[in-house]
């Protein structure tokens, strides 16, 4: 198993802000993002079971939308968010959802190499201080041939977007980055190839991307 550190601790304000946001997070995010989440999670296979990591599970808004045949590990760096996700998982257990819980860092995953068949990264790559590290860690714990199912907001390559870049100077410290370019992040994980990349919301600012780990 990889010896792991805690790079998220380089931004303690982000950890604090998500603790404060946890009680109202669903009110702000649930309805606007539900259709995008649903569409993204259709990329999980529904014909054969696997081990799936939900890296950055937050309050568990993905849980009711997941295929029941898989075995899930739900990870988040924030206890306040996990404490809201767990009751969802317990309720869904009676419907056949199998999920375990880990308090951990998406940028330093506490799992061995090639542990999972799929990794779901919903609204986490553009939140963490080091998105490249988040994606490379997902690739590390993914089995060859497995997929990363990613949904987040990204700037197109070579887009100046001065407002979003300026906004990110503040928002990155307390909620999320708004200046992440996916193509730059992907360069940190050369073992991943793009399978699909589709617009999901806000005129294509939010994208649904499926990546496969090369054999």
Structural notes for this entry:
The structure is a single chain. The protein has five helices and seven strands, in the order H-E-E-H-E-E-H-E-H-H-E-E. By secondary structure, it is an alpha/beta fold. The protein has one domain: Rossmann fold (3-Layer(aba) Sandwich), CATH 3.40.50. A seven-stranded mixed sheet has the order 3-2-1-4-5-7-6. Helix 1 packs parallel to helix 2. About 4% of the residues have low confidence.
SSE layout:
Blueprint: H1 12-41, E1 51-55, E2 71-76, H2 79-93, E3 98-103, E4 116-122, H3 131-141, E5 142-153, H4 162-174, H5 182-186, E6 192-201, E7 206-213
Parallel strand pairs: 1-2, 1-4, 2-3, 4-5
Antiparallel strand pairs: 5-7, 6-7
Can you identify the CATH class? Alpha Beta
At the fourth level of CATH, the homologous superfamily is Vaccinia Virus protein VP39
The CATH architecture term is 3-Layer(aba) Sandwich
Uncertain residue segments: 167-174
Q: Biggest sheet, in brief?
A: 7 strands, mixed
Broad structural category: alpha/beta
- Count structural domains: 1
Instruction: Please count the helical segments.
Output: 5
Binned, the helix content reads 25-40%
Distance between the termini: 21 Å
Strand segment count: 7
Rg (CA only): 16 Å
Strand numbers in spatial order across the main sheet: 3-2-1-4-5-7-6
- CATH fold group: Rossmann fold
Beta-strand percentage? 25-35%
Q: What is the succession of H and E elements?
A: HEEHEEHEHHEE
Shape: globular
């Amino acid at each position: 198993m990889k010896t792991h550190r805690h790079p998220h601790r380089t931004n303690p304000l982000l950890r604090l802000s998500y603790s404060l946001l946890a009680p109202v997070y669903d009110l702000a995010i649930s309805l606007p993002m539900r259709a995008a989440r649903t569409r993204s999670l259709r990329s999980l296979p529904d014909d054969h079971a696997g081990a799936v990591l939900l890296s950055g599970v937050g309050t568990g808004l993905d849980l009711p939308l997941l295929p029941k045949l898989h075995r899930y590990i739900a990870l988040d760096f924030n206890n306040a968010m996990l404490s809201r996700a767990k009751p969802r998982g317990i309720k869904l257990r009676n419907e056949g959802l199998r999920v375990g819980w880990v308090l951990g860092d998406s940028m330093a995953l506490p799992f061995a190499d090639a542990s999972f068949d799929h990794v779901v990264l919903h609204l986490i790559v553009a939140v963490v201080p080091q998105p490249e590290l988040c994606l490379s860690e997902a690739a590390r714990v993914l089995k060859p041939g497995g997929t990363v199912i990613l949904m987040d907001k990204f700037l197109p390559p070579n887009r100046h977007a001065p407002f979003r870049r300026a906004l990110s100077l503040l928002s990155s410290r307390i909620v999320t980055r708004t200046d992440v370019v996916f193509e730059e992040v992907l360069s940190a994980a050369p073992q991943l190839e793009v399978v699909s990349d589709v617009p999901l919301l806000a005129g294509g600012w939010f994208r649904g991307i499926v990546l496969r780990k090369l054999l």
